[in-house]
Amino acid sequence: MIRRAETDADLAAWIDVWNALTPRDPSAPIEVIRRRIEREPERLYLLAVEGEEPVALGFCGPSQSPERTAVEVRVLPGHRRQGIGSAILERLVDHAGGLGRPQVSGMVLEDDQDAISWVTNRGFEEYQRQIELSRELGSEEPAPKTPPGIEIVELDESRYEDAYAVWAECYPDMPVRPPIPAPSYDRWLEEEVSGPITYVALDDGSVVGAAALIDRVDGLAEHGLTAVRRSHRGRGIATALKQALVHWAAANGYRELSTWTQDGNAAMQAVNLKLGYRPRPALINVWRPVRGRTA
Fold first, then answer.
1. Residue 87 to residues 2, 13, 92, 104, 181, Cα–Cα distance (Å)
2. Which CATH code fits 134-279?
């Protein structure tokens, strides 16, 4: 049976399935999911059960692109190839059809051939790759080398609006098409700077760069968007911000950091490689028209 996950019990089961299959990118807790639904009521969370056992999940909701609705299907091993995933996808696509965007999109790992075949057989095509790089941390990491005239400090509430303005300037510059609009201020507060540490780069007291860490699982944190104003790029500020986060994470017991860049963002990939990050299997972004085969 496939049902909408609305109760706390169903959402908890949804989270358990997600975390079992995506351990490096765990789900947000129930209270955050509820706030997201309140902010974006078009979100749909589906749970598939056999008897009382949760076996699969589905998600449909806004993506970063104004032309696409994001869909996710996850089925536990042992319950695959029984039509559960296809049935979930059909319901997700039906829901997406009422949201007014012409495309649905999803993600698969490049080393998961079964998932690639599954989405390909259902009409999805690759349109972009996200490159994950990770770095193991030593017990001590060097402090950042800041460019002349730049100061790096921890973000406090007095600089929230200035930091948000820097992020908002950088989102449209990401090498994706169509461009990604900046999140709302409230969503930015909840999802970009709610982690354990956020640093900003100051030039004569003005915020010109910002970067944050987001907790994933014990000992693992992820870099959010590293943002630098267009007027200050090419001066090593992004590198210094990432060095500051590496230094802080090592001093606070983290064992690994991960970061994502778009395939084509050569400048940021070069920064990451210079700092000792190494590639992991890429995440393939796929899309198809809302109307198309799902079986």
1. 8, 19, 9, 16, 32
2. 3.40.630.30
pLDDT of 125-147, one tens digit each?
Answer: 998 888 899 999 998 899 999 99
User: Whole-model pTM?
Assistant: 0.82
**CA–CA separation, 105 vs 128, rounded Å?**
11
With tokens 């296809």, the residue in question is 86
Q: Own/partner pairs for 29-33, CB < 8 Å, 24+ apart? A: 32/190
- Give the model confidence (pLDDT) of 63-81 as tens digits: 888 889 999 999 999 999 9
> Cβ-count burial of 66 within 10 angstroms (0-12 exposed, 13-18 middle, 19+ buried)?
exposed
Distances (CA, A) of 116 to 162, 204, 205, 222: 41, 50, 48, 25
What fold, for 2-101? Aminopeptidase (3.40.630)
**Residue 145 structure tokens:** 């080398």
